[in-house]
Amino acid sequence: MKGKKLNLGNEEEITDTSNSKTSTKVPKVSKGHHTSKNAYMLVYQQKTANQDGEASLTTHDILPEYVRQHIDMDNETLEQWISEMKNMKEQNIRTGQEKRGEMRQFYEELPVQDGEDFDWIPTDWLNTWLSVSKEIKPPIDNKTFLCQHKKLHPDKVCKLKCVHRQTADKLYDMYKGGPRLHRDAVCLMCVKKRCTILRTRVNMDQDSKLISDCLKNQYNGDNGYWVGKKSLRSWKSLVIKQCEDTENGEDNVEEKTETKKESDNEDENLSFNDDILCSHDKLSTDAGCRRLISTDIWQRLRSYFPLAVEFKQWDPVCELCNRLEEEEEQVKEIQKMVANEQKTQLSDLYQERNRPKAVNGVVTAYVVQKDWITEWRNYIKNPVAKEHPAILSNENLLCAHGNCTIDPKTLPFSDSLVNHTGFVLIWPSEWLILKQAFSTHAPFEVHRVEAQGQPVVYFSNPAVCEECAQAMQLDKDNQQWSYKNVKIYIRKVLDDNATDDTDSDYQQVHVNGKRKKKMNCNQQATTVTKMIKSTNVTTRRSARHRKTKGEKEIIISSDETLRDLKLQIMHMFSVAPFDQHLSVNGQDLTGDHQTLGSLHIAAEDIIYFRADEPCDDPLLLEEVSQSLSPEEGFKGTGLMGGVNCM
Q1: Could you give the CA distance from residue 460 to residue 445 in angstroms, rounded to a whole number?
Q2: What is the 3-state secondary structure (H, E, C) of 246-261?
Q3: Which of 318, 376, 532, 640 has the most Cβ atoms closer than 10 angstroms to its Cβ?
Q4: Does the global pTM surpass 0.85?
């Protein structure tokens, strides 16, 4: 049923299983009954003429009594429902008309005439109140329009409307809310601040052009003022920040001072002209941080920053800072003098020359760690910027028994060992000079005795602790042969120069206009030895590896096997593992299942790689081909297996 009328089933609601994809499920009924949405009943009544000649209906009680009772009950229910719907609609119409009249009356009372009292009410709330939605109207909320003084913010007036005082009273009685904003609710202090900010911005734009023009030339007068260069560059941003702080209510000087002291960031809390103050709040001795300006410019800047510190042209600098700087300059001069004196006395040690070497006779030297010598050299180069080296101590070279853990045989008595050890040998005279200049502790003295025809003998003071030295050397070796994801370098050997011209990075077909010659088998066999000898002859000062032509870099770990290394080389050089010959430090690498650590391959080692190539000798190739051909001397006989005799 829809509306006032009773709508029986429409034709669209008839179930059509032939056209619809999803057929409607027909409810089950008992036998002899039928259910349908389109069933209806026609009732005919016979009209007969009465005595007056008027037609009357003849009722034939065809239906049973219980059916007529049900029909009457349904008709009564329908008529009652229709009556209720009609009354409800009339009630809604009356309510709507009453509300419309009420809203129209309110709307006509909203405008304010000149001289009448009014209240400020949010525009958004008025729009919600005037809408036709049936939702419950929220209370009037004015809290978001208040300033820090709990009054109406002047910048938020555009979001409110003036409503007549009597109408506002009715609205607040009906919907509650608050706080109420009367005619005098606008904050006068905020209005004054806003006007001041606007005037400041206008004046700042005008003064900015004048100040920029005046600062193009250096001031040479006698009545100038000192201004920090940093403040002079950013005075406009400081004015804007000051206006924003004032607008947000942060104009309390005491609170700003406390915030400045507590903050760690000086740039964010820098006030105008504070950059020329020293730590004693006086004029800084650094003349490079300030600039002299005229009185006119200073007065204009002072109008924006009335609390800025003021220093005239002839005001003295901070005496305490000046005295401290003089003392610091004296200390620097003393440091330079001491450094020059040490450099003169220890010139050989500074330039790393004339070190104790292995010669016939007795050689006495002292051992100093190379890291300390490096720190000392840096101090000599720049004694002002670098710190004075700490105590000269060799305590970390001593074991728990008070003896030395370094074997004197491993000390750099030869130039080839200087860059491979962490120690430097110095003469006893140099040790005396260092002992006077620095505090020394645990000196390490070494004596090398070499007699003609006799083995070299080493003595040390303190003596070497064999147990601790062996344990330390074992630990050092374990660390050297244990690494993870480090670089090693593969250098392919082709000719006497040990370069690979087929490398994509260094591809070169001709050298000096001539084609390179190929190596024979004997040349390939001796190339690795030549390369190792040439590497050991000269020692580079730089510890950084210099990549040569034809060299490849591999990332590998010590727990990987030699076969893993060969597989990586195969991907780089397209040479099968069984055709690869590898060597390091003159030793051939064998045992594919051994780890790189067990083969004593260290990080950043250079591994020389030589590939087997086919021989080009035609006589040898013919001999090999003949040896592989089948034997034909017994052809035709029964001695050849698998061949039928004819």
Answers
A1: 6
A2: HHCCCCCHHHHHHHHH
A3: 376
A4: no
